[in-house]
């Protein structure tokens, strides 16, 4: 596999995926409308080609497939990627996440591209009693975003059944790391780092004992590449995999770790519970680890240190992150 199309390749996760592909000397096509992504995050290598295109514009997207009829695989990350905006504008969320995904699948079918990676989310699970959450748990999304991500999954499975598309559906836990923007509820780590760096009081919703599964972005990028290039050891099964650490970390612990690494004291501001917030969540990653050669490599401490270091020296220019 030589030529890969990454939708959303200027975004937080997408830019790390592109970096990892470039490191493996692949030719990378990036389709992104820069709505939340940034051109400064796009790998400037000579084997990367950027297309400013909206995935809801099928004709615009088709230009890429026409120009590059030898695409070997598609990594589909472009999305309305947050829960709260989907509550404000569910139609907009559905248009990008469902209609946009169908456009990508249709073009894969037409241009006979075989391998497909679909970015889904732990948001499809909603609140679950049994932890850690396994892939066979009944879904119960709590936001239009969770619904649209799940609808995308079902389209992917339908195209897999109907046509010659070999897909993997990856449900990411809470991803963190360099280049994440602060204006996201998933980006609590980025928000805390910024607050601590500015000497502001970090704000905690609820009692801070709620837990999440925080996975470093480079471990997510390596999971995506493993799933793109490898075949699962158990073939023919359901193509859904959790991408997570399998460990839960409370918001309080997170803040304590961050302040210890930054050697900075803090006095959290407790802000009361947010409606709809889940108390505890972490995802079982055994299915991904047993089917592919992947495992998460980055400890929370190392990932947090890298995120802090990036925030401390962050500028607008593309910066390679080791
Ligand atoms: N960050 C997380 O914790 C997390 C967790 C679960 C799932 N995900 C999923 O992973 C994927 C990437 O998320 P992210 O955190 O990097 O978000 P992001 O917002 O940083 O990246 C999304 C990218 O898609 C682009 N985009 C948005 N709408 C588009 C459109 N209509 N046409 C073309 N490009 C468009 C944006 O400009 C951006 O570059 C998304 O599919 C998201 O749902 C993320």
From TrEMBL:
This is SDR family NAD(P)-dependent oxidoreductase. Residues 2-148 form the Ketoreductase domain. It comes from the Bacteria. Belongs to the NAD(P)-dependent epimerase/dehydratase family. InterPro entries: Epimerase_deHydtase, KR_dom, NAD(P)-bd_dom_sf. PANTHER family: DTDP-D-GLUCOSE 4,6-DEHYDRATASE-RELATED. It comes from Salicibibacter halophilus. It holds the Pfam family Epimerase.
């Amino acid at each position: 596999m030589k030529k890969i199309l990454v939708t959303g390749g200027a975004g937080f996760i997408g830019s790390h995926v592109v970096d990892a592909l470039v490191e493996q000397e692949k030719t990378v096509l990036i389709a992104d409308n820069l709505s939340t992504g940034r051109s400064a995050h796009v790998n400037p290598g000579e084997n990367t080609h950027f297309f400013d295109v909206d995935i809801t514009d099928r004709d615009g997207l088709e230009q890429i497939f026409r120009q590059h009829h030898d695409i070997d695989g598609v990594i589909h990350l472009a999305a309305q990627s947050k829960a709260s905006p989907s509550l404000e504008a569910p139609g907009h969320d559905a248009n990008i996440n469902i209609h946009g995904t169908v456009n990508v699948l249709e073009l894969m079918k037409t241009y006979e591209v075989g391998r497909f990676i679909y970015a889904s989310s732990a948001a499809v699970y909603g609140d679950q009693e049994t932890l850690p959450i396994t892939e066979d748990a009944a879904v119960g999304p709590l936001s239009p975003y969770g619904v649209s991500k799940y609808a995308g999954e079902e389209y992917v499975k339908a195209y897999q059944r109907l046509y010659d598309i070999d897909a993997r559906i990856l449900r990411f836990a809470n991803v963190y790391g360099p280049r994440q923007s602060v204006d996201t509820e998933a980006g609590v780590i980025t928000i805390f780092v910024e607050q601590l760096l500015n000497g502001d009081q970090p704000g905690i919703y609820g009692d801070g004992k709620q837990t999440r599964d925080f996975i470093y972005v480079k471990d997510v990028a390596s999971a995506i590449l493993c799933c793109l290039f490898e075949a699962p050891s158990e073939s023919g099964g359901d193509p859904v995999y959790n991408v997570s650490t399998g460990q839960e970390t409370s918001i309080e612990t997170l803040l304590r770790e961050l302040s210890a690494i930054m050697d900075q004291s803090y006095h959290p501001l407790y802000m009361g519970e947010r409606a709809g917030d889940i108390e505890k969540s972490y995802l079982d990653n055994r299915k991904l680890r047993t089917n592919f050669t992947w495992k998460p490599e980055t400890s929370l401490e190392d990932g947090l240190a890298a995120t802090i270091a990036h925030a401390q020296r962050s500028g607008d220019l593309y910066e390679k992150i080791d």
